[in-house]
Amino acid sequence: MRIRCFQRQGGLVIGLDVGGTKIETLLVDEEGNILTTMRVPTPTGNGERVAQGVISTVRLVLREANLALDDVQAIGIGVPGQVEGGTVKRAVNLGIEAFPLAQYVQEHVQGVPVVIENDVYTATLGAYSLLNRQEPVRHMLYLGIGTGIAAGVIIDGELYKGAHNMAGEIGHVVIDPNGEVCNCGARGCLETLASGPAFTRQAMQAISAGQRTSLREVDPLNPRTIFQAARDGDQVARLIVERATFYLAQAIQWLLLCYDAEKIVLGGGIAQEGSALVQLLMRHLRAWHGQSKLADLVLNESRLVARTSTPRLGVLGAVVLARQYLHQ
Ligand SMILES: [Zn+2]
Fold it and tell me: Ligand 1 centroid vs 141 CA: distance in angstroms?
């Protein structure tokens, strides 16, 4: 089945979203049709292993579509790390300190141009591309809520990355200076309160503290099963969801007041809760803004979109990245 997912433009491109556990791939033709999709485990540990995983995935995808590297115009890659000039830095989940990923891959795919970007930024591009197929939008925010929390900002149709490619690192805004230690070293960052691991950690803490909860019997224990337990009436799960969505709503409020974007798209694992998540967030926003003259700015439910569909935004954005390269 061919899915028309992109505007008709450019040549045949491959997009890869390299996650800590999976590499997700799309092969898209010049008409914008998705020819092949693929998910394979990510070989992690060092840059060369990750690069080899990318190269073998590219070859696999092409073989499946009966195509060759000669047919490919560009390859776009999203990676969970800081990206500077084709080099990936501080990609902790991949085991990369610094590695020239774009150059290495390009040398092993017969010189097909390879362009890489941070995965939150590629997801932002993916979200923006999808949104604009439905309605023209100039200013958009993306909030990725998964293993970490980070935002992407589109201003006047362009991705805004800031002076050090750090714009949108909202997961490390300190909310509770006495809170849990974050991966970044600080205490009480937003990530420690509302990311996927924060849900699971709080559930485990409640179990070890001997609290009465059905979560004790839940396997696997993850945000999805915690949300389900909350819907089933478990009080401990409800409290975890209530707290996390409170902080996420606060982040949405900051983002909307900072950028006044037309839409804010939620992505990442937690956004899989879809409209149920949007309803929870809206309830917190309504509670704060009952009296505020700015309420209209924040309280419009149509501005909040939780993306639950596949292909995922990150890999769609990697395709957009490759296509943008062709149109530079
Ligand atoms: Zn932090």
Answer: 20
What is the whole-number distance in angstroms between the Cα of residue 69 and the centre of ligand 1? 41
Domains identified in the chain and CATH numbers:
3-124+311-326 (3.30.420.40), 137-306 (3.30.420.40)
Q: Quick check: 149 pLDDT over 60?
A: yes
Distance 192 CA to ligand 1 centre (A): 7
Separation of 142 CA from ligand 1 center, angstroms? 19
Phi, psi angles (nearest 5°) of residue 78: -105, 135
Give CA–CA dist 17/78, Å, rounded: 5
For residue 318, the CA-to-ligand 1 centroid distance in Å is 26
Tens of pLDDT, residues 111-133: 999 999 999 999 999 999 999 98
pLDDT digits (tens, 9 = 90+) for 32-58: 899 999 999 999 999 999 999 999 999
| H helix intervals, 139-234 | 190-194, 196-208, 223-231
| CA of 130 relative to ligand 1 center, distance in Å | 30
Query: Roughly how many angstroms between the first and final C-alpha of the chain, as a whole number?
Result: 31
List, as own/partner pairs, every contact residues 59-65 make where C-beta atoms lie below 8 angstroms and the sequence separation is at least 24, other chains included: 61/14, 61/25, 61/27, 61/36, 62/14, 62/27, 64/36, 64/38, 65/27, 65/35, 65/36
What confidence category does residue 2 fall into, taking pLDDT thresholds of 50, 70 and 90? very low
